[in-house]
Specification:
Chain B: It holds the Pfam family Sec1. Chain B: Belongs to the STXBP/unc-18/SEC1 family. Chain B: Keywords: Protein transport, Transport. Chain B: It comes from Ceratotherium simum simum. The structure holds two protein chains of two kinds. By secondary structure, chain A is mainly alpha-helical. Helices cover 64% and strands 2% of the residues of chain A. By secondary structure, chain B is an alpha/beta fold. A six-stranded mixed beta sheet of chain B has the order 6-7-17-15-11-10, with helices on both faces. In chain B, strands 2-1-3-4-5 form a five-stranded parallel beta sheet. In chain B, strands 12-13-14 form a three-stranded antiparallel beta sheet. In chain B, helix 14 packs antiparallel against helix 15 and helix 16 crosses helix 20. Classes of the chains: A mainly alpha, B alpha/beta. Chains A and B meet through strand 3, helix 3, helix 8, helix 10 and helix 23 of A and helix 1, helix 3, strand 2, strand 3 and helix 5 of B.
């Protein structure tokens, strides 16, 4: 099969790597390879494959190094390279280094410490609730006292001759007072009071934290209550002579302290500063962009390629939407930046720093993503693009069909070669068409004839030169020279082949057209053939003549587009390789596809003109002033920005005029920011999104761990899980948990040998159990 | 084995694990340096970390809407700060990461301080070293030894740093050390001790060939840190000084305000990454290309952007241009300053003689050249002293040693006493008596023929003839030929096969020239990965400080002068 006439002759074109058979086109080579070598010669294939894989690997490594997502710390270890050393930058990705967690230990120690406190607080809260459960003002004092005494057993008066806090002796004047929360005794001076609103706040907060959400209407009330509470506690210290405290509950300093601490915690939990609200909105917007932008880019890319998968209107809607979000991000971050600036006293420098940094990162974000937004074609352009695309598709189809046909023809040809020459006219006429092709099979004559027309192609000349050199060298018998020359030649050919592929595609397209024509003629001929057999030869020769004419046509046609778009394009190609360009590269020599983008660029830009200049200006305006760390980082987003500069750039067109004056070395240059304009209030973005922040979980993530139950028993930490239920069961549950908690604590204390603690705890436990039993009785 | 990546991964994990929301990164002095080596601010900003605070800073405000990520060394001081912080929490929730092993009792006291239950995480993440290059780390310790022995505090810090490195790379190595250095042995033992104590931490997936930790001492090669350098990174460090990737250019005449301090980080400076190991001449031409490229892209003021093509070209190039303008101005300034210093200090000539002193054995010619340069008024006292130091080290025991004469010349030149004293101190630090192996005259036949051939062929570049001693050591190690009597194993087991993963640690500091050597070895040796570390990364200045800090000269002043006197008599 390998028809090597002269082993020394250098062959070029679409050679099969296995049998050195020369094939006409890329398509044929492919089909040939698939048909004939699919089974055999795994070695070569393997070699090629491994080469490709190696290349891929290297590329992946490179990408990995550059990409930010190096964190994919899979468990795959590194392979050692057996073929050479490696640049340390290229070392295989490694897993996360060793870590060790002390969290469980930490929690154990903390739980031991905190449980005591939590139990204490819970106990107080439960009692407080009971003390406030009835209508104090309309109940007689005797009854109140009875109730109070039932909540907590009061310490016997006789047991306490002195005030435990200040040490003063009790007598008629200095009377004993009982803390309603723990039952202990203190003097009047040391007594504290808890106002009802504060009590309500404390008890209701613990309930609220159990139900799903704090309703916003309740929070102002509680704030109010707390203020009043603190005032009343102040006044209580000064002098409250009357014994009657309808709206207050007496307690000792310790209980009061504990409760006040608790109150502070509640306040902190409820209070969300403005910056958090704004920031959450900002993040939502960013997320939205992250969702929408890729979708839009996909659409725009497809539309710009003339595809009809997406509708233009939809895409432009989306574009406007995305741009609105960008505007929103800008506005929000601006708002964050200026938060509290007019306040007196001015905010802490750290707060300002935080605001600046948020603004800075938002700017970076917009900068990075905005550059990736390509523009859309206008309607007319789109129509044009669609047409182009259709044509191209048509051409491709023809091309494929032609390739298939050609393959078939070759098969037939071979058969007919073997068959005797004595064939009927039809066969001869069939062969009449391909005849010149056969001559051209070596590709050399073909490319040679092209070489005449394309003397300008330096590659080809070079190849010719080298071929002749090789021949000469061979003749002279200098084998090593021949080898190096051949090496050169191969490289050149690779280059050339690539060019030729394009040309070949062009060629075969022409051929296909021409063949169609021929077939038509043949059809006609065939009809007449039987009648006029004699004329048949004449016709065949005629065909050959038209064919050769066609060839000339192809050449000229090929030349024109090959040169024209290049000059037309010169500036584009010089502007550094843009990804879009390189992706189009295999196609670009084919004239129509190369012309396509031009029509996009040169057209007027309808969209995005309003937004882009503004935002780009504001970015550039902001960046230098906020440049705090490293100079070069600022430009980091540009890497992404360039990913689709070809398509994105038209939108910059209008802005370029302004930018022109912008010298990056004079970074202080002030440029008016469109968002500072107070006259143009943007549609208030906050209205439409009000429901979102609520959906955001604001509570910190609770990491799962074996001690979770211990922390969860703290009723205040119990989050939404229990959902909106009635109060009674919750409390019961709470009590049960509390009991468990105390049991665990007793166990712990016993183990540590702290007997006094055990006692206190058992007391607690008993009390809790009692309450539980009572409650059960009540609910039943 | 990429140390930069190892640390970066730790930091990323911390940030990731803290979930969404505004965050503040709470660090101490050292961890600030550690983080800044692997992350830039804008990079970390994108992960919602907006504030960077020092745990010891007093005027931090209460910001309950922030999450705090604490990355701290587990020192007593930091634990105390943290306890105070937790008692009165300023942020809503705390994620605590310690850069090394923390004691159980410290965990307990932290836990007991956390009454408000604000701590959500307590972990050890072993990023306890400065990752300079992917294969180079440092501990930024200057003056690690007192005399020949460790400063105890620095020994424990070095042990921590080294064990953290091993943990972050997940290596449980065999240890070899330089026999001639007591400090190397001591460090080896300490590391081993930690590995034994924390055995469950060091249980990694076994590799076929266990990794190797080789501990060396700077005194075995005092020559390398005394030489002028001509590759970009090393040269910048030698002439300008690199401190955690930062270069102080404030002394450069006529420097603009934003270039007072520049950052050279291979992680996000492409030009630097591509050129850090190239020599000065190549960088010159590369920077020229960069400039031309830049000029081409630079939008011309007078050029009218009339056509769409013009605008398109402009806008397309603008981001690149902006990025470039930063890079270009930075590197042009740095390289410009380097070349100014080179010509001002006559460094080409100085370096040539330095290289001769370091690599060749022709005493009379060397002496002549040194003497000639000492007369040259353009040679600074620093360079003059370093030439004499090199001479003193190389020809310490030479029969016709004329060090006293050179010392006289130094005095006549007006070189300050500090430098003159340092000459004897350097000899004391890294002289023949101390060295375990021979720096200057190779013993085995292969090396002799190699040097002979080298002499025949002539050298390619006079200024970069010198090959650090580390190269030979590692070369032998890789080939399995490193002598066990000079570099014994710690413990009974030895390595059967040739090592694959090697960690070299130099007590007393490594140099960028050695980093380059290791880089090249990594690139040329199949299947071998080497990471170099040192108590610090030296240039000549810092090396002399190290020598000074070791306090050797004062104690041994007399003994250093005795041999020189005796040689004079002969």
């Amino acid at each position: 099969m390998a028809s090597l006439d002269d082993p020394g002759e250098v062959r070029e074109g679409f050679l099969c790597p296995l049998c050195l058979k020369d094939l006409q086109s890329f398509y044929q080579l492919q089909s040939h390879y698939e048909e004939e070598h699919s089974g055999e010669d795994r070695d070569v294939k393997g070699q090629i494959k491994s080469l490709v894989q190696k290349a891929k690997k290297a590329k992946n490594r490179l990408l990995k190094r550059e990409g930010d997502d190096r964190a994919e710390s899979g468990t795959q270890g590194y392979e050692s390279f057996s073929y050479g050393g490696v640049d340390p930058y290229m070392w295989e990705p490694q897993e996360l280094g060793a870590v060790r967690s002390h969290l469980s230990d930490f929690k154990k120690h903390r739980a031991a410490r905190i449980d005591h406190y939590v139990v204490e607080v819970n106990k107080l809260i439960i009692r407080l609730e009971k003390l406030t459960a009835f209508d104090r003002t309309n109940t007689e004092s005797a009854k109140i006292r009875a109730i109070e005494k039932s909540v907590v057993p009061w310490v016997n008066d006789q047991d306490v001759p002195f005030c435990p806090d200040c040490g003063n002796k009790f007598n008629i004047r200095n009377r004993r007072h009982h803390c309603r929360l723990c039952g202990s005794i203190m003097c009047k001076k040391c007594m504290e009071l808890i106002s009802l609103p504060l009590a309500n706040k404390l008890t209701s907060a613990s309930k609220d934290s159990l139900s799903t959400h704090t309703s916003p209407s309740q929070s102002p009330n509680s704030v109010h209550g707390s203020r009043r509470g603190s005032i009343s506690s102040m006044s209580s210290v000064s002098s409250v002579l009357d014994e009657k405290d309808d709206d207050r509950i007496r307690c000792c300093t310790h209980c009061k302290d504990t409760l006040l601490k608790r109150e502070q915690q509640i306040d902190e939990k409820e209070h969300t500063p403005d910056i958090v609200k704004l920031y959450e909105k900002l993040r939502l917007c960013m997320e939205k962009v992250d969702q929408k932008a890729p979708e839009y880019i996909r659409m725009a890319a497809s539309l710009n390629a003339g595809e009809t998968t997406y509708s233009l209107e939809h895409a432009s809607d989306l574009r406007v939407e995305v741009q609105k979000v960008y505007e929103l991000i800008d506005a929000l971050s601006k708002k964050i930046l200026t938060l509290g600036l007019n306040q007196d006293p001015p905010p802490h420098p750290n707060t300002l720093r935080l605001q600046r940094m948020i603004r800075y990162s938002a700017t970076l974000f917009v900068q990075e993503k905005l550059l990736g937004l390509m523009s859309l074609p206008t309607k007319e352009q789109f129509e044009e693009l669609k047409k182009k695309r259709k044509q191209e598709m048509e051409r491709k189809r023809i091309l494929e069909r032609q390739a298939a046909l050609e393959a078939q023809r070759r098969l037939e040809e071979r058969r007919s070669d073997l068959a005797s020459r004595a064939a009927n006219g039809e066969v001869v006429s069939l062969r009449g068409g391909p005849a010149p092709l056969r001559k051209a099979e070596g590709w050399l004559p073909l490319s040679g004839s092209q070489g005449q027309g394309e003397d300008s192609d330096p590659l080809l000349q070079q190849i010719h030169n080298i071929t002749s050199f090789i021949r000469q060298a061979k003749a002279a018998g200098r084998t090593d020279e021949v080898r190096t020359l051949q090496e050169n030649l191969r490289q050149l050919q690779d280059e050339y082949d690539q060019q030729q592929t394009e040309k070949a595609i062009e060629m075969s397209r022409k051929q296909a057209e021409e063949e169609d024509l021929q077939r038509e003629q043949l059809q006609m001929l065939r009809e007449r053939e039987w009648e006029r057999e004699r004329e048949q030869f004449q016709a065949a020769s005629l065909h050959t003549r038209t064919r050769s004419l066609d060839f000339r046509e192809i050449r000229s046609f090929h030349l024109e587009p090959g040169r024209e778009p290049r000059t037309h394009f010169a500036h584009v190609l010089d502007l550094g390789s843009s990804p879009a360009q390189s992706s189009a590269a295999p196609k670009s020599p084919s004239p129509s596809s190369a012309l396509e983008p031009i029509s996009v660029w040169s057209g007027p830009q309808a969209l995005g003109q309003e937004f882009f200049p503004q935002s780009t200006m504001s970015q550039q305006n902001e960046v230098p002033s906020l440049n705090l760390f490293d100079e070069e980082d600022l430009s980091s987003p540009t890497a992404e920005g360039t990913t689709s500069p070809l398509a994105a750039e038209p939108s910059f067109g209008p802005s370029a005029h302004i930018l022109k004056e912008y010298n990056p070395f004079e970074e202080e240059e002030a440029v008016g920011n469109p968002f500072t304009n107070p006259d143009s209030p943007a549609p208030n973005p906050f209205e439409e999104e009000d429901e979102h922040p609520h959906q955001r979980p604001s509570s910190p993530p609770v990491p799962g761990n074996p001690f979770e139950e211990a922390t969860c028993t703290n009723p205040f930490e119990m989050d939404s899980d229990s959902g909106p239920e009635s109060e009674e069961p919750i409390e019961e549950e709470l009590l049960l948990q509390q009991i468990d908690n105390i049991k665990a604590y007793i166990f712990d204390a016993k183990q540590c040998g702290r007997l006094d603690e055990v006692e206190v705890l058992t007391e607690n436990l008993r009390e809790l159990k009692r309450t539980l039993a009572k409650q059960k009785g009540g609910t039943d | 084995m990429n140390v930069v990546f190892a640390v970066k991964q730790y930091i990323s994990k911390m940030i990731e694990d803290s979930g969404p929301g505004m965050k503040v990164l709470l660090m101490d002095k050292e961890t600030t340096g550690i983080v800044s080596m692997v992350y830039t601010q804008s990079e970390i900003l994108q992960k919602e970390v907006y504030l960077f605070e020092r745990i010891d800073s007093q005027n931090r405000e209460i910001m309950k809407h922030l999450k705090a990520i604490c990355f701290l060394r587990p020192t007593k001081e930091n634990v105390d700060y943290l306890i105070q912080e937790l008692r009165r929490p300023k942020y809503s929730i705390y994620f605590i990461y310690l850069s090394n092993v923390i004691s159980k009792s410290d965990v307990k006291s932290l836990a007991e301080a956390d009454e408000q239950e604000v701590v959500a995480e307590v972990q050890e993440f072993y990023g306890d070293y400065i990752a300079v290059n992917p294969h180079l780390f440092s501990l930024n310790i200057l003056g690690c030894c007192q005399g020949r022995n460790w400063d105890p505090a620095q020994l424990s810090r070095t042990t921590q740093g080294l064990t953290a490195l091993l943990l972050s790379l997940k290596k449980c190595p065999m240890i070899r050390y330089q026999l001639s250095s007591e400090a190397a042995k001591r460090l080896g033992e300490c590391v081993k001790q930690v590995i034994t104590k924390e055995y469950e931490l060091f249980e990694f997936r076994r590799t076929e060939v266990p990794p190797l930790l080789l501990i060396l001492d700077r005194c075995d090669d005092a020559i390398t840190p005394l030489l002028n350098q001509w590759t970009y990174q090393a040269m910048v460090h030698e002439l300008l000084g690199i401190n955690n990737n930062r270069i102080d250019l404030s002394r450069v005449p006529g420097i603009s305000k934003d270039l007072r301090e520049v950052v050279l980080s291979a992680e996000n400076d492409e030009f630097y990454a591509n050129n850090m190991y190239l020599n000065f001449a190549e960088i010159g031409s590369n920077i020229k290309n960069l400039m031309e490229d830049f000029q081409r892209k630079k939008p011309k003021e007078q050029q009218k952007l009339e056509s769409i093509a013009d605008m398109k070209a402009f806008v397309e190039n603008y981001p690149q241009f902006k990025k470039m303008s930063g890079t270009v101005s930075k590197h042009v300034t740095v390289v410009g300053e380097l070349s100014r210093l080179v010509s001002e200090r006559n460094l080409l000539e100085v370096s040539e003689v330095e290289q001769e002193l370091a690599c060749q054995n022709d005493h009379s010619s060397a002496l002549q050249n040194v003497k000639r340069l000492l007369q040259n008024p353009r040679v600074t006292e620093f360079d003059a002293a370093r030439l004499v130091m090199l001479y003193a080290l190389h020809y310490e025991r030479h029969s016709s040693n004329s060090l006293p004469g050179l010392m006289m010349d130094l005095r006549n030149k007006g070189v300050s006493e500090k430098y003159r004293k340092l000459v004897s101190a350097v000899v004391e630090y890294g002289g023949k008596r101390v060295r375990g192996s021979d720096l200057f005259s190779p013993k085995d036949a292969v090396a002799i023929t190699k040097q002979f051939l080298k002499g025949l062929k002539g050298v390619e570049n006079v200024y970069t003839q010198h090959q650090p001693f580390l190269h030979d050591t590692l070369d032998h190690l890789i080939k399995g030929k490193l002598k066990e009597n000079l570099y014994p194993y710690l413990g009974p087991s030895t390595l059967r096969d040739r090592p694959q993963d090697i960690i070299v640690f130099v007590i007393g500091g490594a140099t960028y020239e050695e980093a380059l050597t290791v880089y090249n070895l990594n690139r040329t040796t199949p299947g071998v990965r080497i990471v170099l570390g040192g108590t610090t990364v030296h240039n000549t200045k810092s090396f002399l400080e190290e020598v000074l800090a070791s306090g050797l000269h004062s104690r041994n002043k007399e003994s250093a002068q005795v041999p020189s006197r005796s040689t004079r008599k002969r």
